[in-house]
Structures are given as structure tokens and as C-alpha cells.
Specification:
This protein is an alpha+beta fold. It is built from nine helices and nine strands. The chain has helices at 2-8, 10-17, 46-56, 65-75, 81-91, 93-98, 149-163, 175-196, 200-206, and strands at residues 25-28, 31-34, 37-39, 76-77, 125-133, 136-141, 225-229, 233-236, 247-249.
Length: 289
């Protein structure tokens, strides 16, 4: 195919038949050689086959740009080689799904504004999951000024720890205990939050994504963006039977690159806890101890 492409290119065909003289190029077995490397004409269809062989094959294992470029450069040369290799590696679907980007996390924390006066912002929370006592199975929690959902969750967790030892029959005796104790917990946690407010810029700049299973893909199929939600989230077009909430923070997203990106219509199989369902293709051998 390379020789056939030479015949369709005026300059390359001139090198082959001797009508074009350029001492930098030699002819070996009908192939044009430049500095010990095979020369390809612009627009050669062989480029994609070479890039697939030296980047996608299991023996090389999807190396990065520099290693892929060195592999190609060792045997072949053409105009725009570096840019072609860079584009191919950036648009590789496997690399986009599995490789980590060495960049700063996208976006900062977006904390709620701190109220200037009392009762400027009022929120409430219900702590549920208790055994019924006097016909009720939840506790109403009214956070004070400057509280966030995380503060309420923390107080709720501590209440659960203190109330977990009570039996369902004893729940009626807790009416006089829960309210004052909850107030103490609220004030104690509020003092902690006040002390941490000055550290919020540091928390914003140092937030990092937590680790995950080593062989699990970091990203899944490309999905179409429906709309932007707030400052740092996007709503995606997921399949109708999806059990995953379709709004994601930008930390969980990455732009899909490529000239022919096709949005996916399916999700990987998940169990009730949202974990991947992994089924082996075949059992090669087994052993009992």
C-alpha cells in the first residue's frame, strides 16, 4: 500500500523514478528511506494502522504520547508526525476512560454564603430510622445560623451513637433527653465550624479526589450533556433504566475527544449498591484445598 501511495503523489513518484533528485532520500526495495526511516506521503492511510499497532496492541499497552512517538519515529517518518501522534493518543477511547489526568481538580468548593444576621437563612432536617415511640419515628432538627447539610449529618450521627443503646420500649423516656442534648451538640459543633471558617480557602485549594479500585475504569462511555446545573455540575443524558443520578460534579467528568464521538446509550451493569457486576468469560481451571 505504501508503494501504491507513492505512485499517486507527484513528489514521491519523482523520487522513485529518479526525476526528482534529493540526496536526503534513498530508495530501498521501492521504499523511500529518510534517515533510516520509511517515509510516508501526506494523507497516507497507513498512518492509522501504524498508530494502532504501536499504541493499541496488548504488547505495548497504550503508552503515553512520548513513548508512542518514539516507537513510531524509530521506524517511520512523515510530515506532521508529532501532531498526528499527539492527537491519536489524546483521542484514544481506552486512554480517555482509564488514564488519570495530571491536572488540578476542576472547580473549587461552593460553600453557602455566611448569614449576616440571625434568621436570615432557616433550614431544617429530619433524622429518621428510629423505632416508633409515642407514634413517632424521627427527630426534627433545626440548625442554627451558618449551618450546612454536613453539620446536620454530623450531629445526627452523634445522636444515633448515643441513642443506639435504647430499646424501642424505652423511646418514650427520651423526650426530656433528646431536645436539650441536641442543643448542646448543635452549639458544640457550631463552635467547631466557626473555627474552621478561616480555613475554607485552604480546603478549597487542596480538595483531592479519593482513590478507587486500581483496575476499574476511571471514566465510562461518552454521554451527551443536557444542561449545566449550577456552577460546577452537569446533567447527562443517561439511559432510561439507569439507577444512577444523572447530575455530576465536574470532578467526575472529562470532555470526550475525537472526531467521531458517539454518545453511549447503555451503562455498565451495576448491582443494588452501585458497584460493577463482574462476570468471568470462562473458568480455565480450579483447585480445592
Amino acid at each position: 500500500m505504501i508503494v501504491a501511495e507513492y505512485a499517486r503523489d507527484p513528489w514521491a513518484s519523482g523520487i522513485v523514478d529518479g526525476s526528482v533528485i534529493d540526496t536526503r532520500y534513498t530508495l530501498v526495495d521501492d521504499l523511500i528511506i529518510y534517515k533510516s526511516r520509511i517515509f510516508l506521503v501526506p494523507g497516507s492511510k497507513v498512518k492509522q494502522s501504524i498508530l494502532r499497532a504501536l499504541h493499541d496492541s496488548p504488547t505495548v499497552g497504550h503508552p503515553g504520547y512520548f513513548k508512542t512517538y518514539r516507537q513510531v519515529w524509530e521506524w517511520f517518518t512523515w510530515k506532521g508526525l508529532k501532531s498526528d501522534v499527539l492527537q491519536y493518543v489524546r483521542e484514544c477511547p481506552v486512554c480517555q476512560q482509564n488514564k488519570q489526568e495530571h491536572t488540578f481538580p476542576a472547580g473549587l468548593l461552593q460553600p453557602l454564603p455566611i448569614p449576616d444576621q440571625k434568621w436570615e437563612c432557616i433550614s431544617m432536617d429530619f433524622i429518621t430510622g428510629f423505632p416508633k415511640a409515642q407514634g413517632y419515628d424521627c427527630i426534627y432538627l433545626s440548625p442554627t445560623d451558618g449551618w450546612t447539610d454536613g453539620d446536620s449529618e454530623q450531629v445526627g450521627g452523634r445522636l444515633f451513637e448515643e441513642l443506639r443503646g435504647w430499646s424501642a420500649e424505652g423511646m418514650g423516656e427520651m423526650d426530656s433527653f433528646v431536645v436539650p442534648r441536641a442543643g448542646d451538640l448543635l452549639q458544640e459543633s457550631k463552635d467547631i465550624v466557626d473555627a474552621l471558617k478561616d480555613n475554607m480557602p485552604y480546603k478549597q485549594s487542596t480538595l483531592k479526589k479519593s482513590g478507587s479500585e486500581k483496575l476499574k475504569p476511571r471514566y465510562y462511555e461518552p454521554f451527551r450533556i443536557i444542561k449545566r446545573v449550577g456552577e460546577l455540575a452537569y446533567e447527562l443524558e443517561l439511559p432510561a433504566d439507569s439507577r444512577v443520578h444523572n447530575v455530576f460534579h465536574v470532578l467526575r467528568l472529562k470532555k470526550a475527544l475525537g472526531q467521531h464521538v458517539v454518545p453511549s446509550t447503555v451503562l455498565p451493569p451495576l448491582d443494588d449498591e452501585g458497584k460493577l457486576i463482574l462476570v468471568p468469560e470462562s473458568i480455565l481451571d480450579s483447585r480445592e484445598k
